[in-house]
Amino acid sequence: MTERIILDCDPGHDDALAMILAAGNPGIELVAVTTCAGNQTLEKVTRNALSVCAIAGIDVPVAAGCRGPLVRPQMVAPDIHGESGLDGPVLPAPVRELDPRHAVDLIIDEVMAAEPGTLTLVPTGPLTNIALAMNKEPRIVERVKQVVLMGGGYTRGNRTPAAEFNIIADPEAAQAVFAGAWKVVMVGLDLTHQATADADVVARIAAIDSPLSEFVVEILKFFGKTYREHQGFDAPPVHDLCCVAWLVDPDVFTTRSAFVAVELTGTWTTGMTVTDFEDLLGQPHNTDVAVRLDKPLLWDMTVEAIAALSARKAG
């Protein structure tokens, strides 16, 4: 059965790969792309989303959303994603106009128009748009099929020792999403650090020999360089891709049920996704937490999607 999704993102190298997989796999119907300030400013990440649509031939509504977090100062990640938010490849000029709606309104419109339980939200950046959509139209919570988010981690952070970037960028929004009465799947660093784009993967993508595959190779080269320099990785972990991959094939990772809450007041732990697998806190479980990745399956489906979109554009 086709999974209908809205991809709420902040492109971002790994967001770009998530967009490509969502558009290139026949098991996914990409309903819309919405953007939120995160890896870079709203203007930059929205331009990047439109550029990815241009190179990949993605023809869905794209709407810009929130310019910053609910209450905190804005945080961006030029150390990893560069000044454009998608440094490395030459960014093609957009070929489509932005949807005139705010991303929050597009999300609400699409969820309310869909049959209940048929539309999944896939946030791969800070959760500001999702939290505001919940607040503006609370009925979406009971209508959304599930929220499959990239964020958090149960043993580590990457922006602080305790906190992953997407969560600490807007922890109040993240807490609202985890506390919502809907199914949440947390695809955090413990899972996504297994999703490295090793040299053999880059070679497979390069062998497709299309403008899109060249674009992806340049993405991965830049992403690999910054991850080596700033986080000591031999190959870059392509975090956001994993969310879409699980919707293509749930065998791509396994999950464990847990109670998850976001720390909002800790001196050193603000933004931490406190994850209780063992019921130590006595709270009902509210999240399925991704724990173990089938890496070959992840990259097989991604290479196939790049090849499919390349053939579609060439045809």
Q: What descriptive keywords fit this protein?
A:
nine-stranded mixed sheet, single chain, Inosine-uridine Nucleoside N-ribohydrolase, Chain A, 315 residues, 9 strands, alpha/beta
What does this protein look like?
With 315 residues, this protein is of the alpha/beta class. It has a single domain, classed as Inosine-uridine Nucleoside N-ribohydrolase, Chain A. The protein is 41% helix and 17% strand. It is built from 13 helices and nine strands. The protein has helices spanning 13-24, 42-56, 78-81, 103-113, 128-136, 140-143, 165-168, 171-179, 189-192, 199-206, 211-231, 241-248, 295-314, and strands at residues 3-9, 28-35, 62-64, 119-123, 146-150, 184-187, 253-262, 273-276, 287-293. A nine-stranded mixed sheet has the order 3-2-1-4-5-6-9-7-8, sandwiched between helices. Strand 2, helix 2 and strand 3 (62-64) form a beta-alpha-beta unit. Helix 5 (128-136) crosses helix 8 (171-179). The protein is globular.
Brief characterization of the structure:
This protein has 315 residues and is α/β, with parallel strands linked by helices. The chain contains 13 helices and 9 strands. The model has no long low-confidence stretch (mean pLDDT 97).
